[in-house]
From TrEMBL:
<keyword id="KW-0808">Transferase</keyword>
<dbReference type="InterPro" id="IPR022496">
    <property type="entry name" value="T6A_TsaB"/>
</dbReference>
<feature type="domain" description="Gcp-like">
    <location>
        <begin position="30"/>
        <end position="226"/>
    </location>
</feature>
<protein>
    <recommendedName>
        <fullName>tRNA threonylcarbamoyladenosine biosynthesis protein TsaB</fullName>
    </recommendedName>
</protein>
<dbReference type="InterPro" id="IPR043129">
    <property type="entry name" value="ATPase_NBD"/>
</dbReference>
<comment type="similarity">
    <text>Belongs to the KAE1 / TsaD family. TsaB subfamily.</text>
</comment>
<keyword id="KW-0012">Acyltransferase</keyword>
<dbReference type="GO" id="GO:0061711">
    <property type="term" value="F:tRNA N(6)-L-threonylcarbamoyladenine synthase activity"/>
</dbReference>
<dbReference type="Pfam" id="PF00814">
    <property type="entry name" value="TsaD"/>
</dbReference>
<dbReference type="InterPro" id="IPR000905">
    <property type="entry name" value="Gcp-like_dom"/>
</dbReference>
Length: 233
């Protein structure tokens, strides 16, 4: 049976959509930090038309659940929920950090990745991943938000060489320069929906889906985000 999954992501500066149909992936991606709401739905239309499919033909809808920009994560989930409600599709949340690990494998063939996104406020969103024989990823260090100067004490210090991914490495290059493990600089900066659909297939096979109304973000910094809302303390 040919699995068909649509993924959308606006959690970072990158705006992306991808459609997995059997063994083929149709994708659109653009770094457009201020135009997510304008670009995401036209991208959805484009990949569906290219694959000659409708939303109702799909098996599931995946979305970038964060961590990332508070506003960006909310935009992506809101759009995904709207699409999911309309087509009555089960939904699958995918970690942006894990998606960058998958992207690093796609681009570099690497199987050990440390992903770090600039979280502002002198912190990074970070996760350390090892690729499994199945093609899925083990979170050696689960995603977290942490000051860059504390990263060294958190990471698994195995003798393997780890490929870096994400904007956090350049944003805090000085603080992250003295890590006591072997690093290889990668050029994956942002998560992309074309990698999320690959990960979503694993989740769908395991039955890890939710209904549209239950789709939820991963902020890792809930209290700070809550305080920034108007009228909150």
């Amino acid at each position: 049976m040919s699995v068909k999954i649509l993924a959308v992501d606006t959690a970072t500066e990158n705006c992306s959509v991808a459609l997995l149909a059997g063994d083929k992936v149709y994708s659109r991606s653009e770094v457009a930090p201020r135009d997510h709401t304008k670009k995401i739905l036209p991208m959805v239309d484009e990949v569906l038309k290219e694959a000659d499919l409708a939303l109702t033909d799909l098996d599931a809808l995946a979305f970038g659940q964060g961590p990332g920009s508070f506003t960006g994560v909310r935009i992506g989930i809101g759009i995904a929920q709207g699409l999911g409600f309309g087509a009555e599709l089960p939904m699958i949340g995918i970690s942006t950090l894990k998606a960058m690990a998958q992207a690093s494998y796609r681009v570099h063939g690497t199987e050990q990745v440390i992903a770090a996104i600039d979280a502002r406020m002198s912190e990074v969103y970070l996760g350390q991943y090892q690729r499994l024989e199945s093609g899925d990823w083990l979170a050696v260090v689960p995603e977290c938000v942490i000051p860059p100067q504390e990263v060294n004490g958190l990471l698994d210090s195995s003798p393997l060489t780890w490929t870096t991914a994400g904007t956090g490495w350049d944003a805090y290059s000085e603080a992250l320069s003295g890590l006591s493990l072997s690093l290889s600089k990668g050029d994956v900066l942002y998560p992309d929906a074309q990698d999320m659909v690959v990960l979503a297939k694993f989740e769908l096979e395991q039955g890890n889906t939710v209904e549209a109304e239950s789709a939820s973000p991963v902020y890792l910094r809930d209290k700070v985000a809550w305080k920034k809302l108007p009228g909150r303390e």
